[in-house]
Amino acid sequence: MTSPTAGPLAGVALAFAFAVFLSAALWKLWGLRGRVDSARACRSPGDGPVILVQVMQADDLELVESACRFAEEQHGEIVLVYVIEVPRRLRLGTMLEQAEQDAGVALAAAREMVLRWDVPVRTVIWRARVMLHGIAAAAGRYHAHVVLSYSPSRGSRGHPEARGQAGS
What we know:
By secondary structure, the protein is α/β, with parallel strands linked by helices. It has helices at 6-42, 62-74, 97-116, 131-141, 160-163; strands spanning 50-54, 77-85, 121-128, 146-148. A 4-stranded parallel beta sheet has the order 3-2-1-4, with helices on both faces. Helix 3 (97-116) links the parallel strand 2 (77-85) and strand 3 (121-128). It is elongated and about 90 Å long. The model is unreliable at 155-168 (pLDDT under 50).
């Protein structure tokens, strides 16, 4: 025979266990809320795709035009990236004046084209040892959904001062 207090104690224990379980579940959901909010903050205002486009020259904007068409249709954002390849013998922070000027001119021309399409745009100059590494790093940094890049067969645009042939 059970004692008369065993029933109420079992009920209290069961209610306590349920309260702990419910608190843990709510705590977990509350923690996920912050992650969802921060993920939303990384997205563009239109919640469309982020399209990263490699820019190489001011007079060669085929990829930019393709990205504009896609971004307009999908309500996306374009990130224009100019990668400056820095040789291993130089520090990544070394100023390469001609490369910086070329980047500014090319990005300005590309930005002008994108603005004519009325698409949100950002411009970035990225320094890397290898072009592909720079594009991949920028794609990760800006959470790109689509990357438009030139094929390796087009070759690196390399700058004479970066190759050590300035003035030759």
